[in-house]
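Example record

The entry below shows one chain as it appears in the dataset: sequence first, then structure tokens.
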Amino acid sequence: MISRDRRIRHGLLLGGLANFLALYHVQPLLTFAFLGTHSLVSGWVSERAQRVGVGVGQAAGLYLLAYYAGSSLFGALAAYRWQTGGWSGVVTVSVALSVGAGLLVWVARRFDGSQGR
């Protein structure tokens, strides 16, 4: 019969390995999705600004301001949640931001007027 301490060590090892593998595969996917979305939205902002007749440079600049301000603010929030809640805190922030981004896209598409393209 396996001792209780040995079962605990094996459980911790397997649990740690599963977490490591999940982060090893999920982190590159999230990074790719984040950067891909950023490039698509950046192009959409410029295209929409040109289509509605406002300054493309100003629209792109405002988008970049919001992008960097948001990444600074929410990066600090994620770091705080990491310190207080570990990975579950970071996942909570990530899920909330993903839902919020989805809602913003839904609202933007409703007011865009180019849905039929």
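Notes for this example: The CA atoms of residues 9 and 15 lie 10 Å apart. The chain has a mean pLDDT of 81.
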